[in-house]
Amino acid sequence: MTQTETDAEKKRKNKNTILHNLKSLFLDPEELSDEAMRNITPGAITPNKVALMKKVYIHSRALFDIFKFTLVYKKKSSSGMQFYGMRKYTAEDDASKIDWKTSVRMSAGHEKVDELYLKVYEEEMDLATFILFDTSSTMLCGTKEYLKSDMAAVVAATLAYAAATSKTKIGAALFSDTMRAIHLPARGEMQYHRILDSICESKNYWGSSNLGNAINMVQESLNGRTMFVIISDFIDIKDDWYRPLKQCSEKFDSVIAVMVRDKMDYHIPKGLGRMKVSYPYQGNGTDVNFDKIREQYNKQALDEEEDLRRKLNNVGAGFIKLDTTTEDFVRPFLEYFTVWSAGK
What we know:
The protein is α/β, with parallel strands linked by helices. It has 10 helices and 10 strands.
């Protein structure tokens, strides 16, 4: 800022910064009063969060409509009226649905009925979305403009926003070799921002990937009316993930595996020659002749992907493949949700 800059110019720059942040927050700055503008601090949102939210805004519109339709459809078309359990009556409930026999029985030994209970059926349970986000070291790779973790962050944040604006519960967990952050399903814009804050926190990224342990840690805290989304490159995951994933598929409404890859994860082009590479978890490098291993590498990568697809299909999980050059990642989700909502 120069000394000759006038107060009016300072005010204009300050207002432009505020407007930029407001647009990133999906608020309409034209609807805010001058008093409200003065109460918003410029720079309150970290730059990486602003950038992420802008990308979410670009991708969320098309996904939001099909996402909302899918959640409502699944809630209303649940097969039958299967009994889920009992819960206490609240002031917001319909009094005609009180189960008086259960309420009397639960109050046995008391002079009066002191707690009222309702029967809860499966179709009345909220269909929540839960995102399990891999933040291990292999996700911090990319040979193009974006890292795999960048693409995964946009996907996770867009799903979270679509769920939050559909007024359904959204939860998320970030994992590598340990659980880095966890947010149990909840509604609202604040939940969306809590999830984004964890995604944008650099300390949550690093380490090996222990998918099986992460699944075991979160699935017991979730009810069956959940769409369970795993976002990972599925590289160097430990071998103990299959059984927990099968349990998830049996328990939850839907399980979706979103594989995010860089093109170099599955295809080495001709003519790279010798290069020095290092393992993500180690500092030492090794000289590799890529032209010599190219064909074997590409075949093995293809075989590993087919094996992953087969295992996911065996447990009834969906599969979506993205890479760091994917421009329209929403389309594969639209196709999946269309098939899923049709019950196929």
